[in-house]
Specification:
Elements: H1 3-7, E1 10-16, E2 20-27, H2 30-43, E3 48-53
Antiparallel strand pairs: 1-2, 1-3
Length: 68
């Protein structure tokens, strides 16, 4: 996860067939996310959108072969 994603944890996701999903847009604040979801829902009434708080942490690769 890059720095931008860490600063923008709120996501509008579009749900696709076969349990697939795609992030439509990321935001810092929930109220901005809700407003954007309403606009997307108005523009694409046949699509399904959800709001998600993406709390994914960056990969923490631990080196188990320490020489100390």
């Amino acid at each position: 996860m890059n720095y931008f994603n860490l600063l923008h944890p709120w996501c509008v996701m579009r749900l696709l067939p076969e349990a697939q999903r795609v992030v439509a847009k990321r935001f810092r604040q929930r109220n901005d996310t809700e407003a954007h979801k309403r606009i997307l829902q108005w523009m694409l009434p046949e699509a399904e959108f959800v709001i998600v708080f993406d709390l994914e942490r960056p990969d923490c690769s631990i080196d188990t072969n320490t020489n100390s």
